[in-house]
Amino acid sequence: MSTSPVLPRMERSSSTARLEDSLEPILEHSPLISPDSPEQRAAAGSLPRNSSTNSIRSASRRRRRRNERNERKTLIYYMFISLTLLIVLYILGLSDPELLAEEFQSTESMIVDTFLSSLKGVAYERVQTVSFQIYTGGAPAFIIDEDTGEEIQNEECFGFHSYGLPGDDDAKLQCYIGLEDSADDVRQRMGIMRDAVNQAYESSSKDPSVLKIFIAPEFYWRGLNGAYELLPDFSDDTHGGCSDICHILKSLEEVTADERFVDWIFLFGTVIASEALPTEDQFDYQFYNFAPLYRGYDPAKSPHPAGKRFLVPKRYVSNLDFLTPMRHLTNETVAVELLDEEDPNRQATPMKPRSIGHNRYDNEMWSNYKKELADLGYTMIEHGWFMMDGISFSVEICLDHLVHRALVTYMADVVTGGKTLIPSFAENKVEWVSIPRHQAQISLVSSAGMDVVIASLALADGGVIFLQDGLDGNVQARSAFGEDQCLPNTWKFFGGSQSVIRKAVLSPTDVTFEYDMNLDFDEIDLYPEQGTRNWTEVLGGVFSKAAYPPRLTIYNPIDIAEP
User: Which of 6, 200, 351, 523 could be stapled to 130 by a disulfide with Cβ–Cβ 3.0 to 4.6 Å?
Assistant: First the structure.
């Protein structure tokens, strides 16, 4: 009596293991799973804790997601039918066992790859920002003694030569903070940044449909004299062939090349650099203020960094960008007791560009070195706009936001026929596309002394702006309407970390915008107040301890605006 052959027991294959390992974190937050009750939906994270700061999903979005789910189900269904047919052929003895085993493994692997890639291929639905609050301004030359109430010299500035005044001459004297060895300075700042990034990951959503954004304030990277020396080829024979700027970029590349960060974008504050020009004037410098922006990725799956490294040059020079060096002050008596007139290092502090009429940064160098930067895997974001995975972004640095750089670029592009091209990253490559007509779904601002300005917003309907400031990190986030007597019908926003959503309102009698400050966040101190590795100990020498402790602001995920 003949019997059909029994399908041999197959060991847990690598594809099956990969499916099981991958499904656990994915299905935990998968949009395919729909809890029955509002309580379950809230527990699963599909309902925001504060619905007033999140827009309700539109009917079109629900239909689109339903169609996506149906397409995935259909695809997986037909692939499992194919696999079942292979098994039937084997049972009936109509296929060679060895050939069938090979086909089985191939088909199984294809099913797993297709299923996981289809889940991952779904566009990001929500965005979560983790803002790094740390004081990046100059240290005050004088502080108030807590015991006596008298003004005393700030020990952070002892022995330093880089004194100056921020802003107007009425401001209080400050000094730049940094280590004498610039390479050590970069390493210590990098260590603090790594701590912030690691804590950001631990505190963030692990939902793969949530795009995570890390943003740090302006002036994070600046050094003892207020700027790192920029060498034309980014190399330096005294530091192993890699200059300070080179070390910063390479270290940030290492941080973001991590499988944990495949759903992350990083705006790492700004780097201040100066380049001595070959002129007779020993104080003739060229200045740069730029933000390194990265897309996280898994180097095992995407070994080439194309489309994952960007540089964002600041366009306009603020009066707060540099201290006015003591040699340029009309009244040096404000610091005569602090400085040695014979100290040659007094001349090392770069001049303030605005003092000689430089209202814009000298960004021609970036154009001249565009090819070299491309060879290093970097793409220039020259106009303050870029696309990432189909999402439109604007990005500005402090004063650029106040003078409406992103908005002006958009408007000028519209009236000139949409000829401006911006970088767009998707599927491990960079393309150049037009600025989208719907404006930015997400706007980013790294600043030091700036708030969200509604007149500068270039947001899509329901778009959101995230701003992180390096001066007012200890200011509580809040909004106000009509407090400014000169602008009685204007919104103003305050706080070191700010997030504002703009929605268009159309009615038979009015066309306007409404603004909603997102206050749905938690704050976490990066270091303890006392004990081992307390915040004053870790920051000592590179950031002032006279301001406030560094912390993270973790916003809860919100919907990404429809394009």
Answer: 200
Count CA within 13 A, CB hemisphere, residue 185.
24
SS3 21: helix
pLDDT the model gives residue 343: 43
Vertex 358: Cα angle to 318 and 471 (nearest 5):
15
Residue 248 has pLDDT above 60, yes or no: yes
CA distances from 145 to 139, 142, 174, 279, 474 (A): 15, 9, 17, 45, 21
Give CA–CA dist 346/225, Å, rounded: 9
Contact indicator for 207, 145 with CB cutoff of 8 Å: no
Residue (of 464, 458, 445, 446) closest to 408 by Cα position: 458
Look-up of token digits 């002129």: 279
Q: Over the Cα atoms of the chain, what is R_g?
A: 27
Q: How confident is the model at residue 224 (pLDDT cuts 50, 70, 90)?
A: confident
Helix axes of 182-203 and 244-256: crossing angle, nearest 10 degrees = 20
Handedness of CA 86, 88, 94, 99 (dihedral sign): positive
The pair of structure tokens assigned to 268 is 């790492």
Report the DSSP pairing between strands 558-559 and 126-133: antiparallel
DSSP 480: E
- Burial level of 557, CB count in 10 A (0-12/13-18/19+)? buried
Distance CA 471, CA 546 (A): 12
Token readout for 108 is 């199984």
